[in-house]
Backbone:
């Protein structure tokens, strides 16, 4: 079997609700998306979801005519291909989306789901709820986590960082909403690199006076292994980080310097192959990994096969309008089906419609950093978030 | 597909060259091995080969944890076996049993897909750099010359490893013989030495530095005890060559201090303890640390299937490059100093029933239905 061609579709999606964090507390409801189709000479097409896509044309030369079964070998070839320029930005987006499509093909050829191709025993992954919720009112916050708790989800991750009193109140709301799923819900927070390391320590310790936190995510800059380790040494919670890095090479200094307690992984970390490499490196140090949120929860297929996977982030903001898939959340777990590949089909008519008439809404890509980050806190203004506007 | 049975057949491998190292100058007796076969309701049989010691734990683990499971879920089953056995003790026979069963499971996974294991693992360049193993210390200088010379001539080896650690002057002389034997086929042969943990770290530094006055060594294998990450690191700091070790370690967890302290320059992966799943995990961890991987010898050199799928494989040791090896044949060919994997479904080791019966020691034992 040979790879004969590709089609990359870049489009704009409008989600059913806005998502926001400490850098964008007002939230956005527009997101860019990409879908890659890899064609073969045997009437099987690989499909992958991702971002960007400008780099695919260049990288496709490395895999054209190759056997798509050889996903790992092609990953090595692509990694070598981008050697001088580095595996960053568009290059990483392209490498990742191509690798995901290759694994989709590898699984489809065997007529099995990706989780089985990767050797998982069952297609089942523990989930935690993540509201990306700085832009939600207190009522909307409760409603989101309660809806997830009704599906058995017993963990939640709150966006924090700009107002410690509000964050404490909202942590209580999240815990209350999740309490129907567990007497001791797993509470996590995420400040998206807004703080300096010592700011993080003060802020988190204050929260830990009232709440038992499982992990704090990105409490310092993604590459700052000294700062991340400092935070880990000075708070009770685990430090989670790495969602914004490119590959296993970027995880090396974090692990070698004991700067990370939970490694955030995703298919954007150089694809399925790169994601698995990171998980294996973490496993050698007995560190757990946690899969990042994504459209249609497709990365749960990878998470199911990782030996050290903790739980996967589920946001579910309604961003699958041009996709068909049949995984579901049950008793707190993402349950994957037996559908071949990643089990996702593209509604071509809907996609064409989205491309012809791009939706209007709030979009701020490529997601800028907020004023004051790393130095001083700029609390959200009433026009930014509903929870500052009063009843 | 479901696993329906397991059968273990012990056998004595045919006598080959002398096998020994610095701790066993006179050579050891041939060690008993066994063939492990997992049968399935699809009629496919997965094969693993291990030491005879794994017989009991293989039965126990397969019966308790693998029967009625789908072998395609092999990485999940690896975790199931490792976790299920985490408090049982049992040392090497237990970890080795898990590795043999893991191999048989991957064999089944590849056979279910009707393809060779390297393809199931996703490799795209089935060519692996290899070096030739040592005939051992009791070999005379003449035997040594013949061993390296013939193998280099017939199979194109560009690198070789020598067992050392006995008489320092003899080691130097024999290193020269090994190099001479390789020279007609390679202008700059890769020279490795294996001390098999017989030195103290400072002794290793003295000996290796002496050798390095005359020879450019690629790596020094096990120059200190396997667990002594401080000593291994000390040796690496004191010599030019890379320090290679790891085959003696039983599990992924044993490598943690070595990685953390960067005590190894080349991470050695052995089929006997790592199987395929554990080896993939270890090799990815090494890759994260930018450390190349060396592959220990394997029956029929089947580990070439794994090596081809690793991002950073440096070289695989070959002690027998022939296709017919006693009770089995392999389709891994050694050509021009490379291992080239074949297209037989699975890992490519085919059991020769007649030869197995002749070499068999004791009766086969099993549970469930074996086709």
Residues:
């Amino acid at each position: 079997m040979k790879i004969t061609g590709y089609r990359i579709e870049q489009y704009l999606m409008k989600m059913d609700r806005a998502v926001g964090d400490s850098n964008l507390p007002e939230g956005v409801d527009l997101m860019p998306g990409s879908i890659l189709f890899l064609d073969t000479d045997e009437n099987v097409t690989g499909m992958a979801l991702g971002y960007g896509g400008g780099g695919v044309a260049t990288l496709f030369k490395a895999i054209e005519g190759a056997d798509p079964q050889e996903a790992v070998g092609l990953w090595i070839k692509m990694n070598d291909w981008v050697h001088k320029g580095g595996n960053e930005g568009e290059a990483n987006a392209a490498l990742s989306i191509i690798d995901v499509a290759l694994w989709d093909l590898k699984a489809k050829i065997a007529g099995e789901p990706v989780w089985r191709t990767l050797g998982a025993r069952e297609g089942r992954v523990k989930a935690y709820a993540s509201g990306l919720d700085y832009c939600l009112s207190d009522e909307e916050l409760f409603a989101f986590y309660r809806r997830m708790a009704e599906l058995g989800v017993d963990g939640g991750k709150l966006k924090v960082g700009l107002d410690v009193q509000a964050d404490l109140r909202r942590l209580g709301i999240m815990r209350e909403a999740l309490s129907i799923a567990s007497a001791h819900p797993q509470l996590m927070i995420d400040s998206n690199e807004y703080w300096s390391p010592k700011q993080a320590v003060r802020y988190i310790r204050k929260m830990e006076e009232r709440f038992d936190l499982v992990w704090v995510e990105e409490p310092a800059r993604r590459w700052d292994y000294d700062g991340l380790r400092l935070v880990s040494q000075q708070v009770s919670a685990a430090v989670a980080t790495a969602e914004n890095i490119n590959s296993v090479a970027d995880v090396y200094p974090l692990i070698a310097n004991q700067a990370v307690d939970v490694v955030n992984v995703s298919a954007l970390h150089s694809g399925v192959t790169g994601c698995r490499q990171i998980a294996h490196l973490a496993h050698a140090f007995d560190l757990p990994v946690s899969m990042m949120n994504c459209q249609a929860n497709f990365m749960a297929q990878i998470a199911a096969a990782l030996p050290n996977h903790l739980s996967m982030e589920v946001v579910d903001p309604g961003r699958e309008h041009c996709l068909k898939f049949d995984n579901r959340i049950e008793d707190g777990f993402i349950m994957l089906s037996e559908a071949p590949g990643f089990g996702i089909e593209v509604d071509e008519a809907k996609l064409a419609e989205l491309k012809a008439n791009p939706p209007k809404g709030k979009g701020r890509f490529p997601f800028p950093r907020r004023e004051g980050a790393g130095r001083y806190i700029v609390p959200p203004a009433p026009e930014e978030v509903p929870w500052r506007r009063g009843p | 597909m479901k696993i329906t049975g397991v059968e273990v057949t012990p056998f004595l491998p045919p006598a080959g060259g002398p096998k020994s190292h610095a701790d066993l100058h006179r050579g050891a007796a041939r060690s008993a091995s066994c063939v492990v076969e997992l049968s399935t309701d699809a009629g496919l049989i997965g094969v693993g080969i291990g030491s005879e010691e794994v017989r009991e734990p293989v039965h126990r683990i397969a019966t308790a944890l693998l029967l009625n499971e789908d072998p395609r879920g092999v990485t999940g089953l690896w975790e199931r076996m490792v976790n299920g056995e985490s408090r049982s003790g049992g040392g090497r026979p237990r970890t080795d049993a898990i590795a043999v069963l893991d191999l048989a499971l991957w064999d089944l996974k590849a056979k279910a897909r009707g393809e060779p294991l390297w393809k199931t693992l996703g490799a795209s360049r089935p060519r692996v750099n290899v070096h030739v193993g040592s005939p051992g210390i009791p070999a005379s200088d003449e035997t040594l010359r013949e061993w390296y010379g013939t193998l280099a001539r017939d199979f194109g080896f560009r690198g070789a490893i020598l067992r050392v650690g006995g008489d320092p002057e003899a080691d130097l002389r024999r290193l020269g013989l090994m190099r001479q034997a390789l020279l007609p086929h390679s202008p700059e042969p890769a020279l490795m030495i294996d001390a098999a943990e017989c030195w103290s770290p400072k002794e290793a530094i003295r000996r290796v530095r002496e050798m390095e006055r005359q020879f450019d060594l690629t790596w020094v294998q096990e120059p200190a005890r396997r667990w002594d990450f401080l000593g291994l690191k000390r040796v690496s700091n004191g010599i030019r060559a890379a320090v290679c070790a790891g085959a003696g370690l039983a599990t992924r967890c044993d490598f943690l201090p070595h990685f953390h302290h960067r005590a190894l320059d080349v991470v050695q992966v052995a089929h006997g303890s790592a199987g395929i799943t554990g080896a993939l995990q270890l090799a990815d961890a090494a890759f994260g640390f930018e450390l190349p991987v060396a592959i220990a010898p394997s029956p029929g050199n089947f580990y070439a299937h794994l090596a081809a799928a690793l991002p950073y494989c440096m070289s695989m040791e070959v002690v027998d490059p022939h296709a017919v090896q006693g009770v089995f044949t392999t389709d891994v060919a050694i050509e021009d100093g490379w291992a080239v994997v074949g297209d037989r479904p699975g890992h490519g080791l085919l059991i020769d029933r007649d030869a197995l019966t002749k070499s068999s020691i004791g009766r086969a034992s099993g549970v469930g239905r074996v086709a």
